[in-house]
Amino acid sequence: MGLPFFAHPAVLAEFRGRWRRVFPLLLAGFFGPPVESAVTAAVGGTRAGGWWVVLVVGCLVPVGFFAARGFVRADGGWAVALGAVVQVVGVVGVTGRALLGVPPVVAGVLGVLLVERAHAVLFDAASGAVAGTSLVMRSRARAVRGLGVWKPVLATAGVDGRWLWWRVGTGVDLHGGRVALRDVRGVWVAHADGPPGGPVVAVRAEGRVIQLVVGDPEGFAWLLDRRVRALGATSDPP
Q1: Transmembrane residues, as ranges (predicted)?
Q2: What one-character DSSP code corresponds to residue 100?
């Protein structure tokens, strides 16, 4: 079974095994709720028109997320949950019976649990093997002060198979940027030169040192360094 993401030869066998484990969970999680909602509506449906459109839109949310391979960037539980809410509205509208909204709710909850379980297996970072793939790794967020705003803002960073990026802000970025992974020449943990202080992830790239404010800087630096060593010097993964 082919992988929908890049994996370095050193971790290819492990991630083929992980993918075989999570693929059925992803299929059931993303497609199960829409199928259940469609069957319920077809069996109990008494109305036509706009309510079917609502139901179709609700079904397309998780199916579209899966088709776009969104699961390589995030767990997708939000897509299943949002889709289920819209599906419930559509099913109740089509059937005219509130009680028939219960099965889509149950299916949606189960779908979220399955998708999040699959994400936990696929993105498990305990061994560091995920650093040898193009799966998106995100740091924990860190609440920071002293950046010219009246309230704490969140600072995060992330990396895929091509880019390292960072942002500090809520909603609209107050500060952010990105560098190509192939341009990164070193990663280590340092003490911040200025606000907000504390340990940061220092990255040498493009002739400068970038300080990333993240939660768990030691853990993120370890994974980022492994990814740079595994993928940074290679051609861009697909």
Answers
A1: 51-72, 79-100, 120-137
A2: G
DSSP string, 8-45: -TTTHHHHHHHHHHHHHHHHHHHHHHHHHHHHHHHHH-
**Which H helix or E strand runs over 142?**
strand 142-144
Task: Give the pTM.
Answer: 0.85
Per-residue pLDDT tens for 4-16?
A: 999 999 999 999 9
Token pair, residue 135, equals 């799966």
pLDDT digit string, tens, across residues 14-36: 999 999 999 999 999 999 999 99
For residue 82, give the amino acid letter: L
DSSP 73: T
